[in-house]
Design brief:
Layout: H1 9-33, H2 37-45, H3 52-58, H4 61-68, H5 82-85, E1 94-96, E2 101-103
Protein backbone atom coordinates (compact mmCIF):
# COMPACT_ATOMS: atom_id res chain seq x y z
CA UNK A 1 0.00 0.00 0.00
CA UNK A 2 1.02 3.51 -0.68
CA UNK A 3 1.36 5.75 2.35
CA UNK A 4 -0.19 9.09 1.74
CA UNK A 5 1.43 11.95 3.56
CA UNK A 6 -0.77 14.63 4.94
CA UNK A 7 -0.06 18.18 3.90
CA UNK A 8 -1.13 21.55 5.11
CA UNK A 9 -3.35 22.02 8.16
CA UNK A 10 -4.08 18.29 8.47
CA UNK A 11 -0.37 17.51 8.87
CA UNK A 12 0.02 20.18 11.55
CA UNK A 13 -3.06 18.91 13.37
CA UNK A 14 -1.77 15.33 13.28
CA UNK A 15 1.63 16.40 14.58
CA UNK A 16 0.11 18.33 17.47
CA UNK A 17 -2.25 15.44 18.25
CA UNK A 18 0.65 13.00 18.41
CA UNK A 19 2.61 15.25 20.76
CA UNK A 20 -0.33 16.10 23.01
CA UNK A 21 -1.55 12.50 23.16
CA UNK A 22 1.91 11.29 24.21
CA UNK A 23 2.08 13.85 27.02
CA UNK A 24 -1.46 13.03 28.19
CA UNK A 25 -0.70 9.30 28.28
CA UNK A 26 2.52 9.86 30.24
CA UNK A 27 0.70 12.11 32.72
CA UNK A 28 -2.04 9.52 33.21
CA UNK A 29 0.60 6.82 33.78
CA UNK A 30 2.31 8.99 36.40
CA UNK A 31 -1.07 9.66 38.05
CA UNK A 32 -1.78 5.92 38.22
CA UNK A 33 1.72 5.24 39.60
CA UNK A 34 1.66 7.74 42.48
CA UNK A 35 -0.11 5.48 45.03
CA UNK A 36 2.48 2.77 44.30
CA UNK A 37 5.32 4.64 45.98
CA UNK A 38 4.34 3.35 49.42
CA UNK A 39 4.33 -0.19 48.00
CA UNK A 40 7.87 0.25 46.68
CA UNK A 41 8.94 1.65 50.05
CA UNK A 42 7.41 -1.38 51.74
CA UNK A 43 9.20 -3.74 49.35
CA UNK A 44 12.55 -1.97 49.81
CA UNK A 45 12.45 -1.25 53.55
CA UNK A 46 9.69 -3.54 54.91
CA UNK A 47 7.89 -0.39 56.03
CA UNK A 48 5.61 1.70 53.84
CA UNK A 49 6.47 4.86 55.79
CA UNK A 50 10.26 4.46 55.57
CA UNK A 51 10.66 6.64 52.49
CA UNK A 52 10.38 10.41 53.00
CA UNK A 53 9.61 10.83 49.29
CA UNK A 54 6.73 8.34 49.44
CA UNK A 55 5.37 10.05 52.57
CA UNK A 56 5.56 13.49 50.95
CA UNK A 57 3.97 12.36 47.69
CA UNK A 58 1.36 10.35 49.60
CA UNK A 59 0.05 13.55 51.18
CA UNK A 60 -0.76 15.18 47.85
CA UNK A 61 -4.45 15.46 46.99
CA UNK A 62 -3.83 13.98 43.55
CA UNK A 63 -2.21 10.90 45.10
CA UNK A 64 -5.15 10.47 47.46
CA UNK A 65 -7.54 10.76 44.51
CA UNK A 66 -5.61 8.09 42.58
CA UNK A 67 -5.63 5.81 45.63
CA UNK A 68 -9.39 6.36 46.03
CA UNK A 69 -9.76 5.12 42.44
CA UNK A 70 -7.80 1.95 43.40
CA UNK A 71 -4.86 2.81 41.15
CA UNK A 72 -1.31 1.76 41.89
CA UNK A 73 -0.02 -1.45 43.43
CA UNK A 74 -2.52 -2.62 46.01
CA UNK A 75 -0.03 -4.65 48.04
CA UNK A 76 -2.08 -4.34 51.22
CA UNK A 77 -5.51 -5.26 49.86
CA UNK A 78 -6.81 -8.74 50.45
CA UNK A 79 -6.81 -10.98 47.39
CA UNK A 80 -3.63 -9.45 45.94
CA UNK A 81 -0.65 -10.05 48.22
CA UNK A 82 -2.59 -10.54 51.45
CA UNK A 83 -0.71 -13.63 52.53
CA UNK A 84 2.58 -11.75 52.61
CA UNK A 85 1.51 -8.73 54.65
CA UNK A 86 -1.58 -9.69 56.64
CA UNK A 87 -2.72 -12.47 58.85
CA UNK A 88 -6.33 -13.35 59.39
CA UNK A 89 -7.41 -15.11 62.55
CA UNK A 90 -10.26 -17.57 62.15
CA UNK A 91 -12.17 -19.35 64.83
CA UNK A 92 -12.19 -23.12 64.40
CA UNK A 93 -14.81 -25.05 66.34
CA UNK A 94 -14.10 -28.59 67.44
CA UNK A 95 -16.52 -31.16 68.83
CA UNK A 96 -15.66 -34.21 70.90
CA UNK A 97 -17.48 -37.09 69.20
CA UNK A 98 -15.94 -40.01 71.03
CA UNK A 99 -12.98 -40.77 68.76
CA UNK A 100 -11.42 -37.40 69.49
CA UNK A 101 -11.87 -33.83 68.39
CA UNK A 102 -13.42 -33.22 64.97
CA UNK A 103 -13.69 -29.85 63.28
CA UNK A 104 -17.29 -28.66 63.02
CA UNK A 105 -18.16 -28.04 59.38
CA UNK A 106 -19.63 -24.57 58.88
CA UNK A 107 -20.85 -24.28 55.26
CA UNK A 108 -20.40 -20.50 54.99
CA UNK A 109 -17.02 -20.30 56.71
CA UNK A 110 -14.74 -17.59 55.35
CA UNK A 111 -11.81 -18.98 53.43
CA UNK A 112 -13.43 -22.19 52.22
CA UNK A 113 -13.05 -22.77 48.51
CA UNK A 114 -16.35 -24.64 48.28
CA UNK A 115 -18.38 -22.21 50.37
CA UNK A 116 -21.77 -21.11 49.20
CA UNK A 117 -23.25 -17.63 49.51
CA UNK A 118 -25.22 -17.09 52.68
Amino acid sequence: PVVRRLRGPAAVAKLWYQRVAAVVVLCLCAFAFLPSLSAYAWLAYADEHASPLANWVGQWDITRKAAAWNLGIAYNHHAYFAGAVHKRSEMVLFADVGDGLVEVDIPCKVGRTDRRPC
